[in-house]
Each structure stands twice: as structure tokens, then as C-alpha cells.
Amino acid sequence: MALSTESGLELRVRADVRTGMEWSDVNTPARTNVSVAEIEEQAALLMALSAQRLALGDKVAAAKYGSEIPINDEAREERLLADVVARSREIGLDPVLSHRFFKSQIEANKVLQRRLHALWADHPELRPRHSPDLESEVRPQLDAITKKMLFRLKSLQCAKKAADRLDGALRESLHDVHEEALRIALVPIRERAAALVTSDDGCRESSVGEAPAA
Ligand SMILES: C=C(O[C@@H]1C=C(C(=O)O)C=C[C@H]1O)C(=O)O
Fold it and tell me: Where in this chain does the entry annotate a coiled-coil region (predicted)?
């Protein structure tokens, strides 16, 4: 913000000068809290689905243990990720975000499977008694949960965007409040500016704001 003084001197003032106290401490509308709560709720629901997907990793590990089926199935991963990207585009979800997100889900699942296989190798008494069928039983469950997670990720993205918009609007309005308050606060300076800058009051421009020499 620029204030012109009578002498033509321009005072450049940052409108967001803070007092050390955050505006949010004193002036947080309830609507912001609603948005934060919405984000937290969507994130918690997504985490619950992620935990459910991981729990299915136990079944995947059991289906693969003692069989020829490798833990790593790159072709399946590629199909899954391609599907995730295509579905994301359909529902308006950021495909880069969802690709990255599901890559992590897959990595976590493989880590779990490796750990379980190592555990079962060392502790035969812990080995699963039942070996579910990967193709007909477990993978359809994984696919169903993956689909649910995509929609939840979309809800989270929407909640975040809404909060960002709200944040922007809030910041804008606070900016105006600052401008207005600062304009009022600086009226005496504006009115007396010419006198202040021309009178010899012992102020040198370079010494303003410095502590007096001892
Ligand atoms: C879960 C499996 O194991 C691995 C993990 C995958 C996943 O999390 O989707 C996919 C393929 C495998 O690399 C599986 O084979 O289905």
C-alpha cells in the first residue's frame, strides 16, 4: 500500500504488518473450523480404508505363501495404476496425486507381505491355516477397496480446495481490515508529513529506528 504525503514523499507500508498476535487467534470464523473438521474427517476415513486395504495384505500374503506366486507383480501394479489414473480423470481427481498415493499403498502392502512371509518362515506355528484364492477372492476385495479409496481421496481433495478458497477469502477480508485500520492509524502522519520531514528535529534518515549511542 502506498500513501502519498503532502510533500510528495511516498510512504510504502506493508498492509500485513503483524503485531505478533495471529489474526486467527482473535478472529477465526466458525466456518473455517468446519472446513478443518471436514478435512480431518475425510482424512480419517481415508486412513481407515488404507488400514483395511493393508489388512487384506494378510490374505494376499497367505494366498502367496508356499506357492509360486511372487510378492511382486509388476504387471498387476501397472494395470492398477493405469486404472486409477483413468478413473481419477473421470471423477476430476488429480491423477498425479492419486498415482503417487496408490503407489504408496502398493509399497506398504508389499512390505507387509514380505514381513509376514519372514515371520511365518521363522515361526511355523503362526502360519495361516487357510490359503485364500488370490484371483477369485482377494483381488476383487482389493479392487473394491481401491475404488472406495479413490472417491474418498476425491472428497479429501474437495475439502482441501474448499478450505483453501475459504482461507483465501478470509485472508482477503483481513487484508482489507488491515488496510482500513492502517489508513486510520496513519492519518496524523499523512497530515503532518510535510512538517515532519522538513523540520530539523535531529532525526537523520539512517538513524531512524536505531538505539541512541550510549
Ligand atoms: C496385493 C498384491 O501384491 C502386490 C501389491 C499390489 C497392490 O497392493 O495392489 C499389487 C501387486 C503386487 O505387486 C497382489 O499381488 O495382488
Answer: none
**Is the CB of residue 33 less than 8 Å from the CB of residue 23?**
no
First to last CA, the chain: 36
CB of residue 80 inside a 6 A radius of ligand 1:
yes
Whole-number Å distance, alpha carbon 142 to ligand 1 midpoint, is 9
Is 124 within a domain? yes
Ligand 1 binding pocket includes 79 (Cβ within 6 Å): no
- Separation of alpha carbons 121 and 126, rounded Å: 9
Domain count, the chain: 1
Q: If you measure from the C-alpha of residue 105 to the centroid of ligand 1, how many angstroms do you get, rounded to a whole number?
A: 9
Question: How does pLDDT run across 168-212, given as a tens digit for each residue?
Answer: 777 777 766 666 666 666 666 566 555 555 545 444 444 444 444
User: Which ligand 1 atom sits nearest the alpha carbon of residue 76?
Assistant: 11
Q: Which domain holds residue 91?
A: 47-177
Ligand 1, atom 9, lies closest to the CA of 106
Global ipTM: 0.99
Residue 5 lies in a domain: no
What CATH number is associated with residue 152?
1.20.59.10
